[in-house]
């Protein structure tokens, strides 16, 4: 039983749940992972997040904290021992939150659109993804100061937000036969992605692309059926 009474409600395929796993691992916290099937949603999830009824939810001493970005920041604020996930400087923290918001607004949205759009529309969304990657290539070079991560020597909030999407990025590449994370265009990001995946806080937690592809195909089929 976790000594600090932490429980994480989530599902293996969710990049947003993965963000919380990584944050907890960075802080070396012991926690209970509760896998949600969402079909149907458990009473515990519905009780813990009655507004959105979504994962992830972190239960800390039976108190629920919802939404991945809020949870990651909560973890960093409560467990203040190193390494820190967000910068100490107020301006740097604000800047970090801006880029995390950018990733969610631009990259997550475009990736979802690729999964559920018709072939012609996908072309536009792939261009959007490539534009985001090029932007994040520039951000990495600036924010890392020549070190391994957006956060410098250690994984930070931007790394967590972006890195949690790497497996799903591989999924849209495989399903559509189009590579976007390529060394010729974004060499720093390619190197960063390899380093990120091999970090002790991440290694073993990134879902396998093959498993995600099967899940993606299933949700695509359900989506198509709902439109009929």
Automatic annotation (TrEMBL):
Keywords in alphabetical order, please.
Answer: Detoxification, Transferase
Q: What is its EC number?
A: 2.5.1.18
GO terms of molecular function = glutathione transferase activity
Question: What cellular component terms from Gene Ontology apply here?
Answer: cytoplasm
**In Gene Ontology terms, what is a biological process of this protein?**
glutathione metabolic process
- Write out the catalysed reaction: RX + glutathione = an S-substituted glutathione + a halide anion + H(+)
Record family assignment: Belongs to the GST superfamily. Tau family.
UniProt protein name: glutathione transferase
């Amino acid at each position: 039983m976790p000594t600090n009474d932490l429980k994480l409600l989530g599902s293996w395929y969710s990049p947003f749940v993965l963000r919380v796993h990584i944050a907890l691992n960075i802080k070396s916290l012991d926690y209970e992972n509760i896998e949600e099937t969402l079909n149907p949603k458990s009473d515990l999830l519905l009780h813990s997040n009655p507004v959105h009824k979504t994962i992830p939810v972190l239960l800390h001493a039976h108190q629920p904290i919802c939404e991945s970005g809020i949870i990651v920041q909560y973890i960093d604020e409560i467990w203040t021992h190193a390494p820190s996930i967000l910068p100490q400087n107020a301006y740097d923290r604000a800047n970090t939150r801006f880029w995390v918001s950018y990733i969610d607004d631009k990259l997550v949205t475009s990736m979802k659109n690729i999964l559920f759009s018709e072939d012609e529309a996908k072309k536009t969304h792939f261009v959007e993804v490539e534009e985001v990657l090029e932007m994040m290539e520039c951000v990495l070079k600036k924010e890392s100061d020549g070190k391994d991560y957006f956060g410098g020597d250690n994984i930070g909030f931007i790394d967590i937000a972006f890195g949690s999407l790497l497996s799903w990025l591989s999924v849209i590449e495989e399903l559509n036969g189009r590579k976007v994370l390529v060394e010729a265009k974004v060499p720093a990001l390619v190197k960063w992605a390899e380093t990120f995946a091999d970090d002790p806080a991440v290694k073993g937690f990134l879902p396998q692309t093959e498993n995600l592809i099967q899940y993606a195909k299933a949700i695509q089929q359900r989506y198509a059926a709902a439109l009929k």
